[in-house]
Specification:
The complex is a heterodimer of chains A (about 425) and B (about 800). Chain A is of the alpha/beta class and about 425 residues long. Chain A has three domains: about 15-225, Rossmann fold; about 230-320, Roll (Ubiquitin-like (UB roll)), CATH 3.10.20.600; about 325-420, NADH-ubiquinone oxidoreductase 51kDa subunit, iron-sulphur binding domain (de novo design (two linked rop proteins), Up-down Bundle), CATH 1.20.1440. Chain A has 16 helices and eight strands. Chain B contains 25 helices and 33 strands. In chain B, the strands form eight sheets. Chain B has a seven-stranded mixed beta sheet with strand order 15-14-25-24-23-16-17, with helices on one face. Chain B is globular. The chains are: A alpha/beta (about 425), B alpha/beta (about 800).
């Protein structure tokens, strides 16, 4: 398929403004300035763009809420805190095509009447930081940022705010806390950031990939854009494929492409031709699935029907050599480490789930541990302050739903099913 | 109006209420650990989850707004299970050291664990083993902490301090000061009351008693004029701790460090236990009979020889209404003189005089919640969060609720730090600032809403004509733009308030400041309720009302203490003029020149050391009585513990003495006394507005010889000369110091912690210096509390009520 978001990234100068302009960059921006802000929002709505960060909230609707709020100033924040295991889909945009993001942000800011934007960048992306800083400087130089963007009289300032290495700061309210200089912890919603966000002002937080889609919608028009992929949630989608495949990497494919195609056609199939055992379709916080979902279209609509979520589109593939107890334990180590500590079930519960998984993995599992795990996970699910706890609980429940035999094997035989087979 | 159903009951709610608010209002129980009435919802503990029909998830009732048509269930099997799991998780690594935890018996975690049944102990985990962190008054035991965050939030959101925060992440999160240093804060102890478990405790109470052995009595704080309700916890006749109880009293449960920790002044080492008479230069213990016969005899003799007006008395802003009333009757009836006054003469009296001159009323009680909801709140050279801490909190609350807080203040006080605009004014020049505002308003810089009908407009116009923004800027050191910006904000606000404090302990404001403030407010059409100047101590207001002041031609404080030889005998009740009043040398001269000095006090004060007779009085918690706070609210003070030694209540001493003087004031007991007091005619006067031109000049400005100005005042942890008796408060701060700006420190060669000599036109003192960026160049700030520093030897009294700002010079390493 034609690449839109990662167009031209094979060129060694793809991150430079010269190359970007040469391939038609910033043309959408000029087109956008010929439109009314409200029309851009209507266009984004009509295009059916859904947020690419994981939740899939309709972007046009979010913008609409923010633009209806009479308070000023408004802030636009790009969420580039890409920190979930398995997820690295924003990285090529940030490192190879930063001007697409900047162009998307300027158009979005114009639509939202925001004069100030931030890119909240993951602390562990030092290279992206350097690229973004350079690209922003270039954009200022070329007049695409600053007091008079492209001669339109519109003002927009943009800077990068780098996080300090906390997964929770990818949650939009914690991200806002962090930008404000506080300890990053999620805030109570409502009020939502679109009404009360950064410094109490209306704030739109969008994912990198979401914002990178905006120039596309403007240049193609909603009609043509919505022809890409699944009409229910159209557009190109970046899939970061990892673990046991021949060609791990980021693939730009139409939304709704079957999982089988991603793994076997694009990623080169399971490593060494081995048998596929399990797939996590959308990053570590989405429930694991069995190979019988291979024909499920990868989008926001169809995956929930199969008991998982599209999430960030991070496909993690496990073959028959992988111990899933170990995967689950490693995932839980991540959640325990990243739980912010604000609410009890997540702070204490992730630690206990890790503890139990650890003893299972180590061969010290006890009878009843599976039930105990399920009980804690259910006590977390839906009862925590933010979705981090739900994610952690969902992982455990997903593994136990589909692979409880492996866990049982671990308890009774004190070793791995995969390694002994 | 919102209508919703909780547990089958149809209930009504107002907009903005959460489900928990509605439940609480209707006495429906929902457990919670991280919720606090004063704080923004946090939603951390997850105990307050409820089921809302039609909602997929359980909802945290503390942070979910009540909505029309909601059907809520607060106690279902699913909820019980969820809550039990939360408690189980909290208890896994809780140390369970309840047998030696001071919180046992009043611990929310203990109570909830009891309510929701025993944990199944499905987890066995390591307990935390963090070391206990201690500080002068607050003990922190991080192992017991359940990370509800209430202490952190009460410290920042409510107190505006932010001394502690959560550090670390997830399971390893803990509450700590920055960089895990020792806690160094204002020691209000609000975090202790906020803590639902035993992670925070009052150090003086540690291992003192089990909660269930304590007997609780409510009383009124003896320190400032806010009149907070203290809950005293007593065991075996001794007060062991003080708590604030949520919702109780004018403070609604808030307390400052003085109120919480300062109660132990009654156990101070300097308490008097028996009457003392000076014979051959030595104070000797005597019986009450002997002491009172001696006093009565001497007073009668002086009266016969020199007339009753050779005798004077000083009452106390810290003893009860009953004590002061009895002193007034004793002096007027048994002695027959009007020579009677209190320390209010040096402060609050000027407020009342100013208010009477302008608004025509005789009293102007404050309203403690007055700042909340005003568009603009202007604070004039006053550290209200130190002098009246709980009133001060209302200014922070107002700011938080959207008021513009304009703080005109040279020091970087807490209010200055939280101000919407902080105008760093040159000390003692706020009268010029206010006159400048008056001129700005009159000059048509802004549109005045009402026609001005108040008398004296022409004189006012004439008196402020020189206070142009440029001149005001020169006088006050505030940039012209900042001045006009603040002026416009205050004058055009929809509703406004002007607050300050005027007290014997402070020397940068005077009657002109009050006049100027009242002129400004009258010009803007604001009544006296917009002028909030609280009385200073627990019963300053009451003592004034009881007539402890000259009502006729009697001598006032200036006439008695600052006019050596004017009286021959002085009866000093519950006051220590040598420490609390300016110009100590002059006072000492006056006291030493007396034929008879009678000091009736709870302790051996500096003044008592010069006395001929000392009469031991029962202290605040040792007698029954009434305090009247700055709102004019009389509040009963019960007797909670037995009197120290032979001390008895002040009013009893005076009643007994009157009998010996041959003037029986009636067979008085407390009840008849209180009846008499409540029968006193009200003193209000009617409003009759009149502008009172205010002149600003410094009596003693800085000059070449004395280039720095010295400002005196109260600090957060102390109050007048009383709090230094408290061991707890002295633990935080017991030494005198002077704060000096880094610029002046460099200029005069002063080192932080080094001693310097401060010389004024009257005397000099030797004192420790603290270099602080809270202080602007050209100013020194010195707390008045510490007798050993004798800083009030530098200052002077100003009988015309003008600010008695003192010019000094510095001699480092003298």
């Amino acid at each position: 398929m034609e690449r839109f978001l990662l167009k031209n990234i094979d060129s060694p100068d793809s991150a430079g403004i010269g190359e970007y302009l040469r391939t038609g960059g910033y043309a959408s921006l000029k087109k956008a300035f010929g439109m009314e802000p409200a029309d851009i929002i209507a266009e984004v709505k009509a295009a059916g763009l859904r947020g690419r960060g994981g939740a899939g909230f309709p972007t046009g609707m979010k913008w609409d809420f923010a633009s209806r709020d009479p308070k000023f100033p408004k802030y636009l924040i790009c969420n580039a805190d890409e920190g979930e295991p398995g997820t690295f889909k924003d990285r090529p945009i940030l490192e190879k095509n930063p001007h697409l993001l900047i162009e998307g942000m300027v158009i979005s800011a114009y639509a939202l009447k925001s004069e100030r934007g931030y890119i909240y960048l993951r602390g562990e992306y030092p290279h992206a930081r350097a690229v973004l800083d350079k690209a922003i400087a270039e954009a200022y130089e070329a007049g695409f940022l600053g007091g008079d963007v492209a001669g339109s009289g519109f003002r927009f300032d943009l800077s990068v705010h780098q996080g300090a290495g906390a997964y929770i700061c990818g949650e939009e309210t914690a991200l806002i806390d962090s930008i404000e200089g506080r300890r990053g912890q999620p805030r109570i919603k409502p009020p939502f950031p679109v009404n009360v966000g950064a410094w109490g002002k209306p704030t739109v937080v969008n994912n990198v990939e979401t914002l990178a889609n905006i120039p596309l919608i403007v240049s193609m028009g909603a009609g043509r854009y919505s022809e890409i992929g699944n009409p229910e949630c159209p557009g190109p989608k970046l899939f970061s494929v990892s673990c046991c495949v021949e060609r791990p990497g980021v693939y730009e494919l139409p939304m709704g492409i079957p999982l089988r195609e991603i793994i076997y056609e694009h990623a080169g199939g399971v490593r060494g031709g081995r048998e596929l055992k399990a797939v996590i379709p959308g990053g570590i916080s989405t429930p694991v699935l069995t190979p019988d979902v291979l024909d499920c279209p990868m989008d926001f609509v169809n995956l929930p029907k199969r008991g998982s979520m599209l999430g960030s589109g991070a496909v993690m593939v496990f073959d028959d050599t992988v111990c899933l107890v170990r995967v689950c334990w490693r995932a839980m180590r991540f959640f325990e480490h990243e739980s912010c500590g604000k609410c009890t079930p997540c702070r204490e519960g992730t630690g206990w789930m890790r503890n139990i998984l650890e003893r299972m993995e180590g061969g010290f599992g006890r009878d009843g541990d599976i039930e105990l795990l399920q009980d804690i996970a259910r006590s977390i699910m839906g009862k925590t302050f933010c979705p981090l706890g739900d994610g952690a609980a969902g992982v455990v429940l997903g593994f136990l739903r589909n692979f409880s035999d492996e866990f049982m094997y671990h308890i009774t035989n004190k070793k791995c099913l995969a390694e002994s087979g | 109006m919102i209508e919703l159903t909780i547990n089958g009951r149809k209930l009504q709610a107002r907009k903005g209420m959460t489900i928990l608010d509605v439940a609480r209002e209707n006495n429906i129980y929902i457990p919670h650990l991280c919720w606090d009435r004063r704080l923004k919802p946090y939603g951390g503990c997850r105990l307050c989850l409820v089921e809302v029909e039609g909602q997929r998830k359980l909802m945290a009732s503390c942070s979910s707004p009540a909505e029309n048509g909601m059907v809520v269930h607060t106690d279902t099997p699913a909820l019980r299970k969820a809550r039990k799991t939360v408690l189980e998780l909290l208890l896994v690594h809780h140390p369970l050291d309840c047998p030696i935890c001071d919180k046992a018996g009043e611990c929310s975690l203990q109570d909830l664990a009891y309510k929701y049944g025993p944990s199944q102990s499905r987890f066995y985990g390591e307990r935390k083993h963090d070391p206990e962190a201690t500080s002068p008054l607050i003990d922190r035991n991080p192992n017991r902490c359940i990370l509800c965050g209430r202490c952190v939030r009460v410290c920042w959101e409510h107190q505006g301090v932010g001394a502690i925060n959560l550090i670390g992440r997830g399971f390893k999160t803990k509450v700590s000061p920055a960089f895990e240093e020792t806690l160094d804060c204002e020691f209000c102890g609000q975090c202790i009351d906020a803590c639902p478990v035993g992670a925070l405790g009052a150090k003086p109470y540690k291992y003192r008693a089990r909660a269930w052995f304590l007997e609780s009595r409510d009383s009124i704080c003896p320190y400032c004029a806010v009149g907070c309700t203290l809950t005293l916890d007593v065991r075996e006749g001794r007060i062991l701790r003080v708590r604030g109880v949520d919702g109780k009293g004018v403070n609604r449960g808030d307390l400052c460090g003085k109120g919480r920790f300062g109660f132990d002044f009654i156990y101070g080492d300097s308490r008097l236990t028996s009457p003392l008479i000076r014979t051959d230069g030595e104070l000797k213990e005597v019986s009450w009979e002997e002491a009172l016969h001696y006093v009565a005899g001497r007073l009668k003799a002086i009266k016969e020889e020199h007339g009753p007006d050779a005798i004077g008395a000083i009452g106390s802003p810290r003893t009860t209404l009953e004590d002061n009333y009895m002193l007034a009757r004793f002096m007027r009836e048994a002695v027959g003189t009007d020579n009677l006054d209190t320390s209010a003469r040096l402060g609050y009296a000027w407020v009342l005089k100013g208010v009477e001159e302008t608004y025509g009323i005789r009293l102007n009680p404050v309203r403690l919640d007055s700042p909340v909801g005003k568009d603009a709140v202007l604070v004039i050279e006053s550290d209200i969060t130190s002098t009246h801490p709980i009133f001060g909190l209302k200014f922070l609350e107002a700011k938080l609720n959207g008021s513009r807080l304009l703080v005109v203040e040279p020091r970087k006080t807490k209010l200055a730090r939280h101000a919407s605009a902080w105008l760093r004014i040159r000390p003692g020049t706020s009268t010029a600032f206010l006159n400048g505002l008056v001129r700005y308003a009159l000059a048509g810089g802004v549109h005045l809403k009402k026609e001005i009908t108040t008398e004296g407009l022409e004189e006012l116009q004439e008196s402020v004509k020189d206070y142009t923004p440029q001149r005001v800027s020169e006088m006050t050191g505030i940039a012209e733009d900042d001045f006009t910006e603040a002026a416009r904000e205050f004058i055009t606000a929809e509703s406004r308030l002007l607050a300050m404090t005027v007290s014997a302990a402070e020397n940068q404001k005077g009657i002109e400041t009050v006049r100027a403030a009242a002129n400004l407010l009258m010009l803007l059409g604001e009544g006296p309720e917009a002028l909030q100047i609280p009385a200073d101590y627990s019963n300053t207001y009451g003592a004034w009302l009881m007539g402890v002041r000259p009502l006729g031609k009697g001598r006032d404080l200036y006439g008695m203490l600052y006019s050596p030889g004017a009286v021959r005998a002085l009866y000093v009740m519950g006051e220590d003029p040598l420490v609390t009043m300016p110009d100590a040398d002059r006072i000492e001269e006056a006291l030493k020149g007396l034929d008879l000095l009678i000091v009736q006090d709870i302790r051996m004060s500096e003044t008592a050391k010069l006395a001929d007779v000392i009469l031991p009085a029962a202290s605040w918690a040792e007698k029954e009585g009434t305090f009247m706070n700055a709102e004019g609210l009389p509040q009963p003070v019960p007797k909670v513990v037995a009197a120290t030694g032979d001390s008895i209540a002040d009013w009893m001493i005076l009643r007994n003495l009157a009998r010996l003087m041959g003037h029986d004031l009636g067979s008085m007991d407390l009840e008849t006394l209180q009846d008499e007091i409540s029968g006193l005619p009200p003193e209000t006067g009617t409003q009759r507005w009149r502008f009172a031109p205010s002149d600003w000049r410094l009596k003693e400005g800085p000059d070449a010889e004395y280039p720095v100005v010295l400002v005196t005042g109260n600090i957060m942890q102390h109050s007048g000369a009383l709090s230094v008796m408290s061991k707890s408060l002295s633990h935080v701060l017991s030494d005198a110091f002077v704060q000096i700006s880094p610029e002046d420190a460099a200029k005069f060669g002063v080192e932080d912690g080094g001693f310097i000599r401060i010389v004024s036109r009257r005397d000099s003192v030797f004192i420790k210096a603290r270099v602080s960026d809270e202080i602007p160049e050209g100013m020194l700030f010195v707390p008045v509390h510490f007798a050993h520093a004798r800083v009030n030897a530098l200052t002077f009294a100003s009988p015309d009520g003008t600010a008695h700002l003192t010019a000094v010079r510095l001699e480092p390493k003298a």
